[in-house]
Write a structure and sequence with these properties.
heterodimer, A: 110 residues, mainly beta, 6-stranded mixed beta sheet, 3-stranded antiparallel beta sheet, 45% strand, B: 122 residues, 7-stranded mixed beta sheet, 4-stranded antiparallel beta sheet, globular
Amino acid sequence: QSSLTQPPSASGTPGQRVTIPCSGSSSNIGSNRVDWYQHLPGTAPKLLIYSNSYRPSGVPDRFSGSRSGTSASLAISGLQSEDEATYYCAAWDDSLIGVVFGGGTKVTVL
Amino acid sequence: QVQLVESGGGVVQPGRSLRLSCTASGFIFNKYAMHWVRQAPGKGLEWVAVIAYDGSHKYHADSVNGRSTISRDNPKNTLYLEMDSLTAEDTAMYYCAKGSVTYSSSSGMDVWGQGTPVTVSS
């Protein structure tokens, strides 16, 4: 059971905007920064957004992140076929004293 | 280039032990925290353990606490994960990941290895 809650799936047509919510609590998102990862089958996960809203070098600017209170979200604008992947939110949890991941959201491009 | 290469996975019988290794290159290993993350078949990512840049702080997930130990050898640029009393629930792909900061209490992991598979089966 994940400490962070994400919807299992999301979808959109090419060019659309898709938003993935991530709900947590005061011990994780409410007090620590959120990171987002993109994972394609058979490959290593990739850091997509760090510290709530920053993009590592090389990540397209159509990916954006935000945090408010005990929730965070990842937005993909101008959806492309190569964005089909599973996306995970993550945060440090002060109560569990460890990293917690969301259950993952599989994005499908219709 | 920055690279992490895991090794040590394989098929192991229930109740036995295993030691995974992760060799780092292309960055100053002793300046960053390091993590282990696993993914069971058909499941999502599960954090396993983290160790601070100098080994001073280590934390393990409840699911492996008491059965696993994360450690590092900075002169050898190598991260380890030892796991005891393995069960079928430990079957997963195990990834090592470089922390984006020196300290352990962060979920940022900016470099990942390709993973090493562990199957616990008799």
